[in-house]
């Protein structure tokens, strides 16, 4: 049943639409991170990416992550991947991107328009 549903025209149309939405959300999120002064690591083809935080704004990555978590934002520390100072972000809907922006602004005082 799963395979029959997967190849159905309606299912494939939904997948194509979802992919377009995800690409749009990712482009917006990458632009937001860049505007916040985060150094995005190029080359991600997935629905997540990594970026280096400008930790001078908040002291250190652990402090930044703790401050963001206090505001409901959870980012993956990439130190265990051999990328100290970096975090991994999943691509999220615009409302979640706005929440990330607000939490970063409240944590660091950095304003992006």
Describe the structure.
The protein has helices at 2-6, 9-35, 61-69, 94-108, and strands spanning 39-40, 48-52, 76-77, 86-90. It is an alpha+beta fold. A four-stranded antiparallel sheet has the order 1-2-4-3, with helices on one face. It is elongated, with a radius of gyration of 17 Å. The termini are far apart. The model has no long low-confidence stretch (mean pLDDT 89).
**Oligomeric category:** single chain
Distance between the termini: 48 Å
Spatial strand arrangement across the major sheet: 1-2-4-3
Tally of helical runs: 4
Order of helices and strands: HHEEHEEH
Q: Total number of β-strand segments?
A: 4
The average pLDDT is 89
Give the fraction of residues assigned to helices: 40-55%
- Global structural class: alpha+beta
Most strands sheet: 4 strands, antiparallel
Strand content: 5-15%
Low-confidence segments, given as residue ranges, are none
Radius of gyration: 17 Å
Shape: elongated
């Amino acid at each position: 049943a799963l395979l029959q549903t997967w190849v159905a025209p309606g299912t494939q149309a939904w997948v194509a639409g979802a992919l377009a939405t995800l690409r749009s959300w990712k482009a917006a999120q990458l632009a937001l991170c860049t505007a916040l002064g985060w150094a995005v690591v190029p080359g991600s083809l997935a629905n997540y990416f990594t970026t280096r935080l400008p930790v001078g704004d908040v002291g250190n990555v652990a402090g930044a992550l703790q401050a963001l978590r206090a505001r409901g934002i959870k980012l993956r520390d990439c130190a265990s991947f051999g990328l100290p100072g970096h975090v991994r972000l999943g691509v999220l809907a615009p409302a979640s991107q706005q929440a990330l922006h607000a939490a970063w602004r409240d944590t660091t005082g950095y304003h992006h328009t």
